[in-house]
């Protein structure tokens, strides 16, 4: 859309904050943002007060029509010149009845100190850290797998709720959903609206899940002698905490790293940089500040290396293990076993194949439109 000089602009509800020399302007309700210079923010404020595009250009030294076009593309404009502009729908919040007033305590300065108590308790009982063999707490392999699955998804749910609660305390309509990271099925919480919050709040939201994971691990470690499943919880949490280091898969630590380095789209910019290098183009980072360029180059080196390592693990370890489990269960069913053995084999097949079906569904929901567009071409 290229608005005419006499056009007025109606925005969706907007917020803004300073980010270095620029201003981040956007919608908390949909998580759509754009960076504009100081003059760009002044133009937005003028347009929001009812000035036309032409009047804004006469007051400020910028091309207001181009700015409005950019804001339309970003999904921030409701109407331009009386014409409705297509824009993303607001995020459909998970637990919409959970209001900001219900969870203000999640951003209280004393809460980190309370979470530190079980974490410190766990550190005082490091002699109780179980060995990985304690994951096999029963002779029945299917029962062990059922227990792992139930505990793991319960812990994952608690982690994501921590993100949701802290984001909601900041006024952000977070949404929990299933997604994919390479070959992994993951739960994820969309807190993209947090971009307008102060840095302390943003970092609290990013790290809230890890803080809860550490607190749960500390409690389980403190009382690990009471039940074998507590040792399982400790080991599952340790594995999940180690997985946070895989920042090339956009884990919680990735978002922390992105914020601390001042990058606005570390993964996207690094991906575009790598594609440009593959096409023989250089100098694609020239418009970025020096610190951002250094961070992007480091992340761009890590991205393909980590991706190849994960895919290699899937091919060498995960796939053969899944094939072994599936063929074993099918062989059991083919041998016309008794009811208990048949139920055990069916349950094992469900536990192995079920997550892969969910992964395929989540992957297609995200990438399906692009795949269909390529096929149509």
UniProtKB/TrEMBL annotation:
Native source species: Nonomuraea soli
Protein name: PqqD family protein
Lineage of source species: Bacteria, Bacillati, Actinomycetota, Actinomycetes, Streptosporangiales
Membrane-spanning segments: 105-124, 136-158, 203-223, 229-248, 301-334, 340-360
Entry keyword set: Membrane, Transmembrane, Transmembrane helix
